[in-house]
Amino acid sequence: MSLRVAIMTDETGWHTGRLKKAFRARAVEARCVDLADCRIDTTWKPHGLAIPGFGHTLPDAVFVRGIAGGTFEQVTLRLGILHALRESGVPVYNDARAIERSVDKSMTSFLLHRYGVPTPATWAGESAAHAQRVLMREAAAHRQVVIKPLFGSQGKGLKKLDTHLPELASFNEVAYLQRFIDATDFDWRVLVIGAKAVAVMKRVGGGGEDWIHNFARGARCETAELTPALAETAIRATQALGLDYAGVDLIPSDETQRPLVLEVNGVAAWRGLQSVTTHDIATLLVDDLLDRKLASTRDVPASSANGRV
């Protein structure tokens, strides 16, 4: 019987199409499943987990492509489904623990700092008074600070501050502050898969804010050299968060002479990156899931040097 994989996603499109094609090339049946449709059901024998399309069985592996937003309870349950799958012995790529670390920007910053990965100075807390003191101290040193939503993506909600702290109500009462690095008009996105940096691009411009370089906001994707410094830093960032694969955003720094990690994306899109690399990224992701992640738990045919087996 062929392997069956669940692609967890709240929407289908270009990314899921590429993944399903790559799974078919490995003779693996891949089915898109919305985590919102899954449930914990202790009467559902034998596992207590109901995954649409898999009956009373569980998938052989899970690829997490997207988790829809929702209430705190809804997101907690969806992550709980991923936790439960892992507890049931199903390889989850990336698993819930790693996604939680990367989605929470404060935990990302903490882990990068703890493991010695270069990243801008960061402060996160609920005290508006402390956040205001940070702004004043940084301004006295002729530095600026950026405030970001603790949970967010695609450059949404970022604000560059001077000495005035905005109302924290619009940031859900949490001040996540990061020292602004005024280096260039671009940043890098490095894709790490299975502890290997496989592709890089420059993201230039975007969205009217020349310091926010997200493809979803109109940034231009350009080819770039995957230097040893970029590769090493991105790999270390991915490992610090325990991710199987990640899109790591880096920026050059005149102060450290090494790239700084801004963010680590545990559910990374790669459409922009695919446009500037010759690698088939979906194939690399699928091969890593099957040949490394899943093969470590069971006997799975590996890809040959010149094709699929």
TrEMBL record:
Entry keyword Transit peptide: no
InterPro entries linked to this entry: ATP-grasp, ATP-grasp_RimK-type, Rimk_N, Rp_bS6_RimK/Lys_biosynth_LsyX
GO cellular component terms attached to this protein's record: cytoplasm
Signal sequence extent: none
Pfam families the UniProt entry points to: RimK, Rimk_N
Ranges where the ATP-grasp domain occurs: 109-290
Matching PROSITE patterns: ATP_GRASP
Gene Ontology molecular function: ATP binding; ligase activity, forming carbon-nitrogen bonds; metal ion binding; transferase activity
Domain of life: Bacteria
Stored SUPFAM superfamilies: Glutathione synthetase ATP-binding domain-like
Keywords in alphabetical order: ATP-binding, Ligase, Magnesium, Manganese, Metal-binding, Nucleotide-binding, Transferase
Entry cofactors: Mg(2+); Mn(2+)
PANTHER family in the record: BETA-CITRYLGLUTAMATE SYNTHASE B-RELATED (PTHR21621:SF0), RIBOSOMAL PROTEIN S6 MODIFICATION PROTEIN (PTHR21621)
Name of this protein: Putative glutaminyl transferase
Organism expressing this protein natively: Candidatus Burkholderia verschuerenii
